[in-house]
Recover the amino acids of this structure.
């Protein structure tokens, strides 16, 4: 501080007040550097790229080759929906139902010979399902009671009806969602919109659990 006062007195004898102000500002009010002191400007700047962990990376479902154009367009629209979990969207062949046990045959009883059990010849049913493909999609957990299932059902119906030619759909019903599960019958394929609980209960159980 004393050194600064001596400089001011020395300059005051040979320069005017304006000269004193310029020197004072140059000593005490130096312009701070534009780059902070903790940033290294000498070496090259290296950017750090963070990759998504494998367990958090979105899973992609490969579509079968012999799918129709309608199912492919529907899959593309559903994959962009913010209401669905992308990893749960799938298109698969329906699981064939196993035949049940035959009815037991009992002999007729009583004087009138009643009580006999005979199931008859019946009709020969072809193995398989009534649909060729099944599309399943799960809404994000916690949104099933906030209208997400109904919103996805409306999106599915709008997509299928806007195709050329439009796919035949049953009449729109207000009660299309029950226990976190809604289904749209599109003729040759079915679309299931599920909650997480319904997915675990009806679609992730093995045949032995049933």
């Amino acid at each position: 501080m004393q050194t600064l006062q001596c400089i001011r007195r020395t300059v005051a004898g040979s320069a005017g007040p304006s000269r004193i102000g310029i020197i004072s500002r140059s000593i005490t009010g130096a312009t701070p550097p534009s780059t902070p002191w903790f940033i290294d400007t000498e070496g090259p700047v290296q950017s750090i790229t963070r990759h998504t962990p494998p367990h958090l990376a979105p899973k992609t479902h490969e579509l079968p080759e012999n799918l129709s154009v309608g199912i492919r367009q529907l899959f593309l629209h559903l994959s962009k929906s913010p209401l669905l979990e992308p990893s749960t969207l799938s298109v698969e062949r329906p699981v064939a139902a196993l035949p049940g046990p035959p009815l037991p045959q009992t002999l007729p009883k009583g004087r009138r010979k009643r009580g006999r059990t005979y199931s008859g010849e019946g009709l020969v049913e072809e193995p398989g399902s009534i649909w060729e493909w099944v599309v399943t999609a799960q809404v994000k957990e916690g949104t099933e009671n906030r209208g997400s299932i109904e919103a996805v059902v409306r999106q599915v119906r709008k997509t299928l009806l806007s195709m050329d030619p439009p796919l035949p759909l049953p009449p729109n019903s207000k009660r299309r969602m029950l226990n976190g599960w809604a289904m749209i019958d599109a003729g040759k394929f079915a679309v299931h919109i599920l909650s997480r609980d319904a997915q675990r209960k009806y679609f992730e159980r093995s045949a032995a659990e049933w």
